[in-house]
Design a protein that fits this description.
By secondary structure, the chain is of the alpha/beta class. The chain has two domains: about 190 residues, 2-Layer Sandwich (CbiD-like); about 170 residues, no CATH class. The protein is about 35% helix and about 20% strand. The strands form five sheets. Strands 5-6-7-10-8 form a five-stranded mixed sheet. Strands 14-13-15-16-17 form a five-stranded mixed sheet, sandwiched between helices. A three-stranded antiparallel sheet has the order 1-4-3, covered by helices on one side. Helix 9 runs antiparallel to helix 10 and helix 10 packs across helix 11. The chain is elongated and about 85 Å long.
Length: about 375
């Protein structure tokens, strides 16, 4: 599949730099739906289809598949996520468009591989297909353009399917969010910015929304699978109460500040939480670094010998400092210092919107330290 962008406005300039942008699932669905609707009204599929995206962009897509069905017309676009490691890159985004009752407007249904919402708190109501409001708006806008060309009202049913979407959804947060049967159709701008991790941050926000809407009084954000397992066991939390925040501690904390929960636990490895203790909100290695001298000063405050401090000062990682502390029997105290520092960072960030506690978790899953109320 290929796609091009027209740039009629300053805000719609092509991206610069070496990383190639791509298209959201919602943009691809809008293109497929528009092509299918044009064929439904004209009995002819276009060679390519252009759709208007938010922020002044128009994107042109080639069709990967097109055919008549028993009820209407069907078209598919292969998603190109650019250079982003998107789980749906290369997926086939399919739309069948059929006539509906006069006056019904544009209605949506979930086909194969598209999930259905089962819990409150998401942007669409339980029982609805997991097609977010902005993609619905883009699709409806594209169909309005076609309807206008033919002088008709767009009273249609749009069924979106993503073959293989059920398996792909297991790699996303959908099961925890109560979205069953497949993927969500997402995309606020229509454009995928490589490595912006917008979908990950989106899933963090939605997980908080679902927790609030379903009355969960205690949620936890974990930096990885090991920390997730540890915090679930430590607090006896349900799977749905644990949010895979990855390196995006700041995204979770900022959202909780605006959308309070009674209690929030943050769990992570020693190195990542040492960054949080230092005030870093993005814990990825490329966007924040471990301050070894600060770790060494913490070790000195715990009464470490001059020789141990000198050795630690030459360490190249947080793990190396922790290993030296362990030799002197100070690893638990050092981990507790990090847990307390990370907790203070979190408390300052949420500004009273949640009671905070922090778990520092070893690579083997053992809880090294706990700091709580």
């Amino acid at each position: 599949m290929s796609a091009t962008v027209d740039t009629p406005e300053e805000s719609a300039r092509p991206p610069s730099g070496s990383l190639r942008r791509g298209w959201t699932t919602g943009a691809c669905a809008a293109a497929a739906a528009k092509a299918a609707y044009e064929a439904l009204l004209s009995d002819r599929f276009p060679d390519s289809v252009a759709v208007r995206l938010p922020r002044g962009l128009r994107a042109t897509f080639d069709l990967a598949e097109m055919c008549r069905t028993e009820r209407g017309m069907f078209a598919a676009v292969v998603k190109d996520a650019g250079d982003d490691p998107d789980v749906t890159h290369g997926a086939r985004i399919c739309c069948e468009v059929t006539h509906a009752v006069a006056g019904s407007g544009v209605c949506f249904a979930a086909g194969e591989g598209v999930g259905t919402v089962t819990l409150p708190g998401l942007p669409v109501a339980p029982g609805e297909p997991a097609i977010n409001p902005k993609p619905r708006e883009m699709i409806a806008g594209a169909l309005q353009e076609v309807a206008g060309d033919f002088g008709v009202a767009p009273d249609v049913l749009v069924t979106i399917s993503i073959p293989g979407g059920g398996a792909l959804a297991e790699k996303t947060a959908n099961p925890r969010l109560g979205i069953v049967g497949g993927l969500s159709v997402l995309g606020t701008t229509g454009v995928v910015i490589p490595y912006s991790c917008a979908s990950w941050i989106h899933s963090i926000h939605r997980a908080v929304d679902v927790a609030r809407a379903t009355g969960l009084g205690h949620v936890a954000g974990a930096t990885g699978r090991t920390s997730e397992t540890a915090v679930r066991a430590h607090h006896a939390l349900a799977e749905r109460a644990v949010i895979d925040m990855g390196d995006f501690a700041g995204a979770l904390l900022k959202y909780v500040r605006a959308h309070p929960v009674p209690r929030l636990t943050v769990a992570g490895g020693f190195g990542k939480l040492s960054k949080l203790a230092d005030g870093h909100m993005d814990l990825h290695s490329s966007r924040s670094s471990i301050d070894v001298p600060v770790l060494v000063s913490r070790l000195a405050e715990l009464g470490a010998s001059d020789s141990l401090v000198a050795q630690a000062d030459k360490a190249v990682s947080a793990g190396a400092v922790l290993a030296l502390a362990a030799e002197a029997g100070l690893d638990t105290q050092l981990a507790l210092s990090i847990a307390r520092g990370a907790r203070e960072t979190c408390r300052a960030s949420v500004a009273g919107a949640a009671d905070i506690d922090v778990l520092v978790v070893a690579r083997n899953g053992e809880v090294l330290a706990y700091a709580g109320p």
